Automatic annotation (TrEMBL):
Coiled coil: none annotated. SMART domains: CHAD. Residues 8-304 form the CHAD domain. It comes from the Bacteria. This is CHAD domain-containing protein. It comes from Streptomyces cirratus. Pfam families: CHAD.
Length: 304
């Protein structure tokens, strides 16, 4: 793996340093997030903290998956499961809010208007329907987040990460191995899985199909795992980050398209509303295709 940290440093040294760094980021973000919830920090700071919290949780969980053989396995499996739960729970509220904002902006753009008052009747009604559905989903996600953050389960996770910030439970044998003998081959497994998933994608420039979204989402997940593995080893990740951004756009557009299609299936909506939702769905499908082409232009993702 080009750019990896190798030499006399042991596998345990490298993995431990990375995990402790991410645990510190997690705890710092958690403090700001709690201050924001209590009104001691602004909404912008709270939003940044929530993103940092999710990012650190993902990185720790991903590293415990990729480099499981180097960690104490039962501890790694338990903490990874809890961090995946936490990251997913925290992401839902933001996702619904971002989806609504994206769809409302698209409706304004497609109708050629600069404000809600000048929207066409169909677009206005479509927007109102989407706002009701997604605001309800966001409210439920917000309640789930508050419930999670107040739970004993979350406090147990936070306590485990606090311990991780100072001490990483490692396998005593694997941790003494050289980076190039232990960590690099494990990271290459993650790369191989990503390469296989990319190869399994539909042919380039094939017609859009929502049935293919699952395969693309899996590539996004595996790309993130591969990127975090390279990051832990000190490898170059700029190209992987750019490819990840393209797949983030793909995910956002595909989920927005699904939301507009769900709204269009609402019983007894007016034909003009259904038409506006159909146009919106087609617009988001085009965004999906653009994101796919953008990602395809970056393959292969990185040198060996």
């Amino acid at each position: 793996m080009t750019g990896a940290t190798t030499g006399a440093t042991t596998a345990g040294d490298v993995l431990g340093t990375y995990l402790r760094s991410q645990a510190t980021t997690f705890l710092r973000a958690l403090r700001v997030h709690e201050e924001s919830a209590a009104g001691a920090a602004g909404p912008a700071e709270g939003g940044d903290a929530a993103r940092s919290l999710r990012g650190a949780a993902r990185r720790i969980a991903s590293s415990l998956t990729t480099f499981r053989a180097v960690a104490e396995s039962s501890w790694a499996d338990g903490l990874r499961t809890e961090l995946v739960w936490l990251s997913s729970t925290l992401a839902d509220e933001h996702a619904y809010a971002a989806r609504l904002s994206r769809l409302m902006d698209a409706l304004h753009r497609l109708s050629g208007a600069c404000g809600a008052g000048s929207l066409t009747v169909g677009s206005a009604r479509a927007g109102a329907l989407l706002e009701r559905q997604l605001t309800l989903a966001r409210t439920r996600a917000h309640s789930a987040t508050l419930s999670a953050l107040g739970s004993s389960r979350f406090h147990a996770v936070a306590d485990a990460v606090a311990v991780l910030a100072s001490e990483v439970p490692l396998d005593p044998v694997a941790a003494r191995g050289r980076v190039e003998d232990v960590l690099v081959p494990l990271a290459e497994v993650a790369r191989t899985r990503l390469d296989a998933a990319v190869e399994a994608l539909p042919p380039r420039h094939s017609p859009y199909s929502a049935q293919d979204d699952g395969a693309w989402h899996e590539v996004r997940r595996l790309l993130r795992v591969h990127r975090y593995a390279r990051e832990a080893l000190g490898g170059e990740v700029a190209r992987l980050a750019a490819a990840g951004e393209a797949l983030d756009r793909h995910r956002d557009a595909s989920e927005a398209a699904a939301a507009s299609a769900t709204a269009a299936r609402t019983p007894r909506i007016a034909p003009t509303t259904a038409y506006a939702l159909g146009v919106l769905h087609a617009d988001q499908r085009h965004a999906v295709e653009a994101a796919r082409h953008s990602f395809e232009s970056m393959v292969p993702l990185a040198p060996s």
